[in-house]
Amino acid sequence: MAVGTGRYDGGYSFEGELLLIHLDSGDVVSALPYPREVLGVEWRSETALRLVLAPCDDWENPQAHEQGHAVVVARSDWGAVGQGAISAEELAAPAEPVVQPDHSGEARRILADLAASAGRHWSVRRRVWAVEGMKDGRVLAALDGVLAESWLPSGDLQWAVEDEEGGRQLVLASDGTSVWTNAERRGRRKGRRWETSAPRVARIAIDTGQVLETVSPGVCTVLVSGGQGTILRPLDGRCKRPERLLMFDLDGPVNGPEVGHFDLFNHPFAVRRASRPYVLVGTDPDEPHRDKWVTALGADGTLRRLFAHSWVPEEHHFGGPAVEFGQSLVYGGAVHHGHGLQPGGAYVVRRSLNGSVQWQHRTDHPATALDTDGDTVYVAYNSGALTALDAADGSVCWHTELEVDGAPTTALSLAVAPQGHLLIGTVDGRILECSPRP
Q1: CA–CA dist 424, 428 (Å, integer)
Q2: 13: which strand partners?
Q3: Which regions in the chain score pLDDT beneath 50?
Q4: Domain 129-434 is classified in which CATH homologous superfamily?
Q5: What value does the CA radius of gyration of the chain take, rounded to a whole number of Å?
Q6: What is the pLDDT of residue 251?
Q7: By its UniProt entry, which InterPro entries does this protein fall under (predicted)?
Q8: Which neighbouring-strand residues pair with 397?
Q9: DSSP output for 181-247
Q10: 321/164 Cα distance (integer angstroms)
């Protein structure tokens, strides 16, 4: 089976894959030599496969979103095609106007009919970006299409607040009875123009799901947890003036210190169990993604540098998830390389608050989420793996590939619940309750 995937990345490139799935074994081969969005696939014969590929990017090409490159690739045995085996020369073809059909309605009908034939109901449920466990056993989650939701210990849905894009983070408010959440707002193409709806940050009552208040900061923001207040960090990289933290909680917003522009690759640093707010801040106002420092926000509203984010001077490290415990920070990240992520280029590191490295664990895949119970650090990776590291020395306690009923999945969010078990939010919309032991 040939499957074309891909999408526009929102700023420059059209990325995706041509996947060849061996139906007998389930093995999957990504056959293109580099990422390309595949707009169409069609078997012309047992040996000929027609592909329609989006342009590589829209640099200096405003028509790129209406164009495609149509080619026919021939193989005598498609079952023998290896990783990246289709050459760039075989994909070379002039760009021409293409109609990009929307198959989503047909796909949803097929899935709904299949579920109905099994006596079940099907609905879209995707990427769980945040999970939090409550002391009473309830579970909060934020996911695509849902700003926030609450599940009872019985497994029944208590309430859900819908949203056109969905929630991305959950941060408990200082009153202990409500939770802050933010909604992503992506640009959508309307003809030749891009439109983005107003961003949304809301505080929701944990017991009832009532939206208590909605904040409209004017630009999309990330939530920064720690201390008694809630901190918003703007994401508007187009703004020429220096960005400031917005200090916000039950008493209203107050402008905080300058932190420079936010970069989606470099500045994510969501610290769980934070005793105070932490943010990554660059030292160069013109290039804030360079020379990043881990900084802490003091009670007086000033930022204090703690240590450079990269402990290797010649390496540039991307940001990632983090957790605070024992006068230290454990965080994940990846090392920038001009040819993409290299073997061993991702890491989880524990550093004391003076910057000294207590241990590091190198991997081939970036961490998507991590948390700790004080003895063990649990790390989810974008490969679908789940690893438990000894919090004292970083050694591997156990490692597993995440599966549900034999089907592989990937964790986007992870939290250690007050009861000690792991809560995992997956890319396919599941919330898993797992033992902290393999």
Answers
A1: 11
A2: 57
A3: none
A4: YVTN repeat-like/Quinoprotein amine dehydrogenase (2.130.10.10)
A5: 23
A6: 60
A7: PQQ_rpt_dom, Quino_amine_DH_bsu, Quinoprotein_ADH-like_sf, WD40/YVTN_repeat-like_dom_sf
A8: none
A9: EEE----EEETTEEE-PPPEEEEEETTT--EEEEE--SS-EEEE--SSSEEEEE--TT--SPPEEEE
A10: 25
Question: Torsion over CA of 423, 427, 429 and 432, rounded to 10 degrees?
Answer: -20
81: which 2 tokens?
Answer: 């095609």
Q: Could you tell me the two tokens for 363?
A: 């991997």
Q: What Cα–Cα distance (Å) separates residue 307 from each residue in 164, 295, 313, 352, 357?
A: 39, 7, 12, 9, 11
Distances (CA, A) of 107 to 4, 54, 143, 292: 14, 21, 21, 44
> To 5 degrees, how large is the angle CA 392–CA 398–CA 402?
130
Polymer length of the chain: 438
pLDDT of residue 194: 67
pTM of this prediction?
0.84
Run of H or E including 254: strand 252-258
Pair 345, 364: CB distance under 8 Å: yes
Supply angle C-alpha 175, 320, 15, rounded to 5: 120
CA distances (Å), origin 257, targets 22, 287, 304, 427? 55, 18, 11, 35
- Concatenated DSSP letters of 12-72: SBEE--EEEE-TTT--EEE-SSS---EEEEEESSSSEEEEEE--SB-TT-TTGGGEEEEEE
DSSP 270: -
What was the pLDDT predicted at 190? 65
pLDDT of residue 192: 61
Q: What SS3 class is residue 111?
A: helix
**Which of 373, 375, 370 has its CA nearest to residue 386?**
370
The token duo for 312 is 């290797």
Spatial strand order of the sheet with 2-4 comes to 2-4, 18-21, 28-30
DSSP for 164-183, please give it. Answer: EEEEEEEEE-TTSSEEEEEE
Instruction: Residue 335: name the closest of 347, 326, 323, 348 by CA.
Output: 347
Helix (H) / strand (E) containing 109: helix 104-117
Q: Write down the domain spans for the chain.
A: 2-104, 129-434
Q: CA 38 to CA 2: how far, in whole Å?
A: 11
Largest CA distance in the chain: 70
Closest CA to 336 of 366, 357, 306: 366
pLDDT in tens, 363-394: 999 999 999 999 999 999 999 999 999 999 99
First to last CA, the chain: 34
Could you tell me the two tokens for 211? 């939206």
